[in-house]
Structures are given as structure tokens and as C-alpha cells.
Amino acid sequence: MAEKGAKKRKIGERRGTDFNNSTTKGMTKWPTIKPKQNLEITRLKETDLFTVQNFFTSAESQAFIKAAESIGFVHQGSLGPTKGEAYRDNDRISVNDPILAETVWESGLNKLFSDFKIRGKGAVGLNPNIRLYRYKVGQRFGRHIDESADLGGGRRTHYTLLIYLSGGSKAKAKNNSKTLKDSSIEPLIGGETVFYGSTNGVVAEVAPTEGMALLHIHGDKCMLHEAKNVSKGVKYVFRSDVVFA
């Protein structure tokens, strides 16, 4: 039942992030993203799940948080499992920005995905529907799956991209004091992304680390997963999807 409810919730979320109904109005000045060299994939337990350390620098991560806070987040909730939806409580910004998507893709993801093939198709870029998430103390996203999106013209998303903008040591959190609100200068505790197997056993648990990218296959092969409760600090995430054609 959890998986069925999760699917329904994610479909509903995609409707809420319609490209012609972005949260922001007008142009947003996003941080400059520098190309990264020698990025390495760390695959977790022989799954279609992997991380990339230092995909964003600390300065880039903090700059995205500052830009997002200046725009303002909108709360996202759900009716909950009893209504067939995954439990959800977080804040979100949604923008349609092909230039930002291309910039992030060309900064190193294009090389990491150069040999990836799904059903004979290769990775061509990121979904221009960019989402920024904020989880404060007590907020979480229950068990769900991520649906694949048909973008038209033979283009379809097959991987979720999450880039953690906060997380890690207390020293890093202190360095954010000029950027973030008082509660977020505390070290982030909680907010792990947890993946479950077919028998609901934990396959992997990924703790947020500033600047680290987490990628996992979605659609019909997506593992059930959740964003655990944040118990201290503030968790910020950059979200998009890898497009294949």
C-alpha cells in the first residue's frame, strides 16, 4: 500500500510543478557554477544508486541557499498515507530554467553519464524543471517512489538528481552564518535519504553532505525511499532529473 500511495503522491507533485506555473516570477540570478574535474562515482551496494562528492563547492552551495531564501519557499504537504499519498512536509521552490539546467549538466554530469544507456538511449541533459527543497526541524518526506516524466520529442527522465546544499560538520555550518537564518547555523542532524529493497529492508542510507550529489534511477525501477526527519539544523536540496533521448 505504501508504494501505491507513493506513486500517487509523486504524480500529484509533478502536476504541481508545471513548467508554466513556476514559483518564482521574473529572472533569478543564480550562482556561477564552475566546471569540475576528476569527479568520481561511488556506487552503493551494486545498485543504480551512486554519490558524487564535492559536485558543488561550499561557496556554490551556500550561494544557492542565499538565492533560494531571497526568493522565498512555499510549503508543500500531503493528505497522508490514509488518503493514498506519501506523507510530505517540506518547503519548495520550482522554476523552469533551461540555462541553469544546462550549466549544471555541463559542469560535470555530462561526463559522468557519457557511457550510460537506458533502452538504447543516452543521457542528454537535465530536466529544466528545477526544484529547491528546504526541510526544517521536524519536517520529512515519507516513503515514495519518483515517477519518470515524458518531456516530449522522445525525451524521458530516468534518474533523480539530488544535490545537498547543507550538511556535514559544525564548522561548515558556522561558515553559513552570513547566509542562513539563525536556526540553520546549527549542524544538520537527520534528514538522511533512505532506500528500501523489495522486502522493505534498508538497502542504503545517505546522510546529507554539503555539495554532494546523489543520483538514483527512477520510474518502474525506482527503489522505495524517504527523506528522514530533520532533528537539528536545516536541510537544503537542489533537485532535477537526468533526461535520456
TrEMBL record:
Cofactor: L-ascorbate
GO molecular function: iron ion binding; L-ascorbic acid binding; procollagen-proline 4-dioxygenase activity
Annotated ranges, domain Prolyl 4-hydroxylase alpha subunit: 47-243
Listed GO CC annotations: endoplasmic reticulum membrane
Reactions the enzyme catalyzes: L-prolyl-[collagen] + 2-oxoglutarate + O2 = trans-4-hydroxy-L-prolyl-[collagen] + succinate + CO2
Main location group: endoplasmic reticulum
Keyword Ribosomal protein: no
UniProt region (Disordered), positions on chain: 1-30
Keyword list, A-Z: Dioxygenase, Iron, Metal-binding, Oxidoreductase, Signal-anchor, Transmembrane
InterPro entries the UniProt entry points to: P4HA-like (IPR045054), Pro_4_hyd_alph (IPR006620)
Compartments, as annotated in UniProt: Endoplasmic reticulum membrane
Listed Basic residues bias regions: 1-12
Membrane topology classification: Single-pass type II membrane protein
Coiled coil stretches, renumbered: none
Name recorded for this polypeptide: 2OG-FeII_Oxy_3 domain-containing protein
